[in-house]
Design goal:
Layout: H1 3-8, H2 14-28, H3 30-41, H4 54-59, E1 66-67, E2 69-70, E3 86-87, E4 95-96, H5 110-122, H6 142-150, H7 154-162, E5 166-169, E6 175-178, E7 185-194, E8 197-204, H8 210-222, E9 229-237, E10 240-250, H9 251-255, H10 262-279
Parallel strand pairs: 1-3, 2-4
Antiparallel strand pairs: 5-6, 6-7, 7-8, 8-10, 9-10
Helix pairs in contact: 2-3, 7-10, 8-10
Length: 289
């Protein structure tokens, strides 16, 4: 019997329950403890991002270091003063539970086996670097392919948040960027599922400023290493038809056709999306970050 999974339903504090079992494995399984230490120690320590004021309070305690872990990415809130005690991945504000899945080696200890099975059931697994079928109407195995792909958005989410956007997830594999304080764009919609293309759609607050969006986006698209099309078309916004700017690129060109790693896929997504988003992330003085 898996005590981790069978006792999970006995508490509403699910995150604390997971943390206690994780701590137990660290305490009682030397090989897991060493793998965890190697992962954390290999990372450069940086100043923390404060999500709810909680991290700053922890950093004021006499700690050797602070690692913050969540089930899913969360944009940063107020910046905590640079503190060498805060440890995070180089390209993200905090760790995800899935970052530790590869450390849970089967057969090392019953605690590790329980946690690994629990991580699998909760979806805290590493993404598959082989991109499967992407569809907005998943059936059978395609659901797993979509959930795997959704885990690849981490660097795009972080980069977009740093440019001033609020990031929201759409239908599993889609992203929405909204509420930029100074951009003429009301919403950026990003989807890898559009007739075999990657689609990045820019919806303006004011159609009168459409050219202020199309022109810098077209300039940014021209710098990308693969063929793209930039087109003014019609889309839906707040229950009405509006003019939008669409950027399309073949999905295989963005992701590549060769075998690759998760890190390379995340970087390819970032290299495609970030120049386009940066082009419309206009600051109050008319410059882009």
């Amino acid at each position: 019997m898996n005590l981790f999974w069978s006792t999970r339903s006995l508490t509403e504090a699910r995150e604390d329950h997971l943390t206690e079992f994780f701590a137990a494995a660290l305490a009682h399984v030397p090989s897991f403890r060493q793998a965890y230490a190697d992962l954390v120690d290999a990372l450069e320590t940086m100043g923390a991002e404060d999500f709810r004021g909680q991290l700053q309070r922890y950093l004021e305690l006499p700690l050797d270091g602070l690692v913050y872990v969540r089930r899913a990415w969360l944009a940063s809130g107020d910046v905590v003063t640079s503190n060498p005690m805060y440890v995070r991945p180089p390209e993200r504000e905090h760790f995800l539970w899935s970052d530790f899945f590869s450390l849970l080696v089967p057969g090392e200890h019953v605690l590790v086996d329980w946690l690994r099975e629990g991580f699998e059931l909760l979806g805290f697994t590493s993404p598959n670097p082989t991109v499967g079928e992407l569809t907005l109407r998943p059936e059978g195995g395609t659901r797993g392919a979509m959930e795997d792909f959704a885990k690849l958005w981490g660097r795009v989410k972080t980069g977009s948040a740093r440019l001033g956007w609020t990031v929201q997830s759409g239908s599993t594999i889609q992203l929405y960027l909204i509420r930029h304080p100074t951009s003429p764009v009301a919403q950026v919609f990003i989807s890898p599922e559009s007739r075999g293309d990657f689609l990045v759609r820019f919806t303006p607050f004011d159609e009168g400023r459409l050219e202020d969006i199309r022109s810098p986006v077209a300039s940014a698209a021209a710098t990308l290493p693969h063929a793209t099309t930039v087109k003014v078309t019609t889309g839906n916004w707040q229950a009405k038809k509006v003019k939008v700017v669409d950027v399309r690129a073949p999905r295989h060109a963005v992701l590549g056709l060769d075998e690759t790693t998760v890190e390379e896929l995340e970087l390819r997504l970032l290299r495609f999306v970030e120049p386009l988003v940066r082009a419309v992330s206009v600051a109050g003085d008319g410059t882009t970050p």
